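We were asked to recover a plausible sequence for a given structure. The inputs and outputs are reproduced exactly as logged, with field labels preserved.

PROBLEM: sequence recovery
POSITIONS: 381
GIVEN STRUCTURE:
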């Protein structure tokens, strides 16, 4: 009596269940029922034989035919996006690549065909819906998945997609350790994104920290799924939209504009400071250097004057009358050397002793005689 006829149904209860609980079922062709095949084959052979009875040779032929059909039922084909997981009495024994393969016939071995080589896309915070009226697709926002709280207590709307696939060496874990792979990946992705967003301020998230956020979410997801032994490989996390909530986006844009103006004014002030401060430092250094030079010059001149005075004093002590006369003459020479007026004093024997009339002798002294023309001697030629 076949298993399917015991108790009026499957021995593991209703629904798509296998002998090990609610694990995944084979997506390949269902193995034939051997008892049903034997009974049908026996009926056909009895109808073909005269008298409707089987002899020893007939029974042998039926058995051989049934064995041949049973043996050929082990061939199966694995498609390009699939991997074949061969189970022997429910235990994973090997994984086969795409192509034509063979396993021991049912119930010794069975095969599961998960699409392990296909990269799946999971959207979180949005749903892509086909719109036949517009001939394309529309995106519907899911706020219960996309609204998240940042580290500085702001709310941000994040839509992102996750690209994942089955690990080639983790197909067994994928089939037997998680019941709902897509739901598990979605829950882990949403939790990881909320954790990373909760540790970051809103400003970097909206500007230049997207790449860092994506890498952090991918790393956290992979670490969590590996702890579950899920056999899932996260290939990439892509943030599609990062905006403030629609109710406050206008006010947030005003705040962003004010922050941009603040940064611009700070940059202009810093540029002005970078230009003025070096100029002021250069001028102060120049003034200090000029003062140092004037100081050295004044000290040197004072030392020279004092040395000169001491030298003159020494000479004065040796011959006071001669030194006084020489000083007088040098002083008069220095005072009258630049004068352009001459005064003649006749003294007591020069006349009446009254005021001497002024004569412009300086102009006469400054005049130069005109050059005389040269006369040519030797006769005309």
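RECOVERED SEQUENCE:
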């Amino acid at each position: 009596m076949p298993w399917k006829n015991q108790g009026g149904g499957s021995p593991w209860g209703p629904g798509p269940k296998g002998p090990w609980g609610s694990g995944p079922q084979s997506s390949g062709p269902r193995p034939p029922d051997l008892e049903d095949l034997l009974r049908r084959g026996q009926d056909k052979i009895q109808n073909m034989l005269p008298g409707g009875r089987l002899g020893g040779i007939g029974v042998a032929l039926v058995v051989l035919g049934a064995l041949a059909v049973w043996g050929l039922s082990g061939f199966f084909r694995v498609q390009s996006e699939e991997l074949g997981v061969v189970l022997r009495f429910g235990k994973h024994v090997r994984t086969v690549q795409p192509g034509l393969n063979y396993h021991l016939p049912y119930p010794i071995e069975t095969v599961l065909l998960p699409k392990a080589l296909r990269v799946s896309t999971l959207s979180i915070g949005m749903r892509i819906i086909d719109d036949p009226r517009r001939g394309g697709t529309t995106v519907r926002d899911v706020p219960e998945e996309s609204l998240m709280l940042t580290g500085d207590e702001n709310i941000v709307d994040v839509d992102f997609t996750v690209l994942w696939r089955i690990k080639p060496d983790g197909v067994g874990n994928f089939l037997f350790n998680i019941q709902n792979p897509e739901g598990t990946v979605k829950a882990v992705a949403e939790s990881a994104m909320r954790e990373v967003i909760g540790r970051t301020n809103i400003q970097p998230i909206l500007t230049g920290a997207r790449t860092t956020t994506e890498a952090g979410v991918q790393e956290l997801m992979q670490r969590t799924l590996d702890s579950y032994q899920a056999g899932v490989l996260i290939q990439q996390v892509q943030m599609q939209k990062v905006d403030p909530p629609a109710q406050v986006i206008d006010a947030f844009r005003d705040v962003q504009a004010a922050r941009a103006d603040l940064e611009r004014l700070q940059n202009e002030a810093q540029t002005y400071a970078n230009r003025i401060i070096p100029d002021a430092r250069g001028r102060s250094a120049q003034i200090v250097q000029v003062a140092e030079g004037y100081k050295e010059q004044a000290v040197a001149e004072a030392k020279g004057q004092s040395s000169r005075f001491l030298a003159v004093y020494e000479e004065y002590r040796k011959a006071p009358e001669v030194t006084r006369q020489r000083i007088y003459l040098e002083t008069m020479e220095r005072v009258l050397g630049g004068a352009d007026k001459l005064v003649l004093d006749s003294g007591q024997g020069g006349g009446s002793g009254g005021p001497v009339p002024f004569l412009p002798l300086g102009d006469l002294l400054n005049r130069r005689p005109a050059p005389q023309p040269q006369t040519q001697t030797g006769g005309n030629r």
